[in-house]
Amino acid sequence: QVQLVESGGGLVQAGGSLRLSCTTSGGTLYAKALGWFRQAPGKDRDLVAAINWSGTRTYYGDSVKDRFTISRDNAKNTVYLQMNSLKPEDTAVYYCAARQTVVLITASDQYNYWGQGTQVTVSS
């Protein structure tokens, strides 16, 4: 059973940076597509970024393009989300998700493993 654990969230001022990490406490990320989602209070859970198994394909939501970077280190069983030029509207709980497939997937209902989330708060 794959259990995803996020870390790296916190409080940062606007314009600052954070790097989120997601690893497994059980199972591996072998041959799994990965994604980062976020959910702000009262809003839907939205895809932030996704990456395929090999790391050769990535996808970014429009609001984070050119600011966020998703990457993975399969040897370390970890996926990262580097967030730069953070804005107050980036404030949300960020979730890591995985699915046993080698292709890139963007729909939340296609992911079947989810972490508990990590809070990111950006102050103005």
Overview of the molecule:
The chain has no helices and eleven strands. It has 124 residues and is an all-beta fold. The strands form two sheets. Strands 2, 4, 5, 6, 9, 10 and 11 form a seven-stranded mixed beta sheet that branches. It starts with a strand and ends with a strand. The model has no long low-confidence stretch (mean pLDDT 95).
Topology diagram in text:
Layout: E1 3-7, E2 10-13, E3 18-26, E4 33-39, E5 45-51, E6 58-60, E7 68-73, E8 78-83, E9 92-99, E10 113-114, E11 118-123
Parallel strand pairs: 2-11
Antiparallel strand pairs: 1-3, 3-8, 4-5, 4-9, 5-6, 7-8, 9-10, 9-11
Largest sheet composition: 7 strands, mixed
End-to-end C-alpha gap: 40 Å
Structural class by SSE content = mainly beta
- The number of helices is 0
Question: Could you tell me the mean pLDDT?
Answer: 95
Shape: globular
Total DSSP E strands = 11
Low-confidence stretches: none
Approximate helicity band: under 10%
Strand content: over 45%
Rg calc: 13 Å
Order of helices and strands: EEEEEEEEEEE
Write a concise keyword list for the protein shown above.
mainly beta, single chain, 4-stranded antiparallel sheet, 0% helix
